[in-house]
Amino acid sequence: MHRLSAGSGRSPLEFAFLLPSDKGDGIRMGADDQDYELCLGKQDLGEQGNGCIFLAPPDEGLRCTVHAHRPMVCRSFPMRPQVDGTWLPQGDPCPKGIFGAHHVDQALATKLNDAWETERRLGVAFVEGWNKIAVLAPAGKSRSPRMFFYWLMAYFDRVQTAGPPGADALMIGALKQALSRVN
After folding, report:
1. So what's the pLDDT on residue 45?
2. Gap between the Cα atoms of 126 and 136, Å rounded
3. Per-10-residue mean pLDDT for the chain, 183 residues long?
4. Domain total for the chain?
């Protein structure tokens, strides 16, 4: 989200949303039991179906308008690394025929694995910290998506400059090195 927001000049509230999830490890907004997952917005592309909010319209070639700033899920598409280090196809968020498994560069996919894992650890650390705060909300009240995105951006601003709370310099160095290889 941070990379997309900085690169597009848009607030995450303009292109992302929190979707209720039953995975049990998601983002919490309060003391209730509901989990949410972070999702990119979609847009109607007519005959092409639905696609990422950052795709140019069909008359402009359905190209990614934030390619240099795309999130890791897009950088590794159509594959998604699993916890055990294997790569499996993910769902098809792109319109039919725009991009598929035959476009996968396996050498790049291997490099992406390190960057994906580093970003995943940073994201997990943020969500764990956020959830500790969110469950402290008074009964019947919850944190807002606006507040979530504000703190998410503040957290990754800190990662960019000083590193995440509790993280050592090696982790930040690993993230910067991994991302420089796939940018």
Report:
1. 80
2. 16
3. 87 90 80 82 82 86 86 72 60 52 60 73 83 78 84 82 56 49 45
4. 1
Q: Note the pLDDT of residue 168.
A: 47
Nearest-angstrom CA–CA distance, 27 and 34: 8
**Burial of 81 (C-beta count, 10 Å sphere; 0-12/13-18/19+):** buried
| CA 57 – CA 68 distance, rounded (Å) | 18
What's the domain range around 32? 2-182
